[in-house]
Amino acid sequence: METTDTTEKPIVNLTEAALKEVKRLLDLQGITEGGLRLGVKGGGCSGLSYTTNFDEKIGEFDSVSEVDGVKVIIDAKSEIYLSGMTLDYEKDMVSGAFKFINPNASKTCGCGESFSA
């Protein structure tokens, strides 16, 4: 299985807050070999929706980069939409959520979970 290793320049950047939350969630789920899987799927009010999962499997066509010890896994179809994006994490008194800051998005919905390119 070959993967594209982009450890020199990550496809996606993670803020310090996002890194801290991802590391906490990986530890909570006991995932040691995999990492954070980011992707894009059709749907949402703007046409495309972000997906976030934790995965221990790396596919043949996945790109893998490492950001401060966290593997970020992105499938080939999603890479064109996510390249250069920053993932942030915001927490308030009630809950927390990942925030996608995507320079490739020409339009985003009000909730920030879908976009068009």
Count of helix runs = 2
Beta-strand segment tally: 10
Distance between the termini: 31 Å
Strand arrangement within the widest β-sheet reads: 1-5-6-3-4-10-9
The helix/strand order is EEHEEEEHEEEE
Radius of gyration (Å):
14 Å
What's the CATH H-level homologous superfamily?
HesB-like domain
Share in β-strands: 35-45%
Number of domain modules: 1
Largest sheet: 7 strands, mixed
What would the average pLDDT be, to the nearest integer? 83
What is the CATH topology descriptor? Answer: Hypothetical Protein Aq_1857, Chain: A
Structural class: alpha/beta
Low-confidence regions: 1-7
- Morphology: globular
The helix content is 10-25%
What would CATH call the class?
A: Mainly Beta
CATH architecture label: Sandwich
What does this structure look like?
With 117 residues, the protein is an alpha/beta fold. It has a single domain, classed as Hypothetical Protein Aq_1857, Chain: A (Sandwich). It has helices at residues 16-29, 76-82, and strands at 4-5, 13-14, 35-42, 48-55, 63-67, 70-74, 86-91, 96-101, 107-108, 114-116. A seven-stranded mixed sheet has the order 1-5-6-3-4-10-9. The protein has a three-stranded mixed sheet with strand order 2-7-8. The chain starts with a strand and ends with a strand.
Topology of this protein?
Layout (H helix, E strand, L loop, with lengths): L3 E2 L7 E2 L1 H14 L5 E8 L5 E8 L7 E5 L2 E5 L1 H7 L3 E6 L4 E6 L5 E2 L5 E3 L1
Parallel strand pairs: 1-5, 2-7, 3-6
Antiparallel strand pairs: 3-4, 4-10, 5-6, 7-8, 9-10
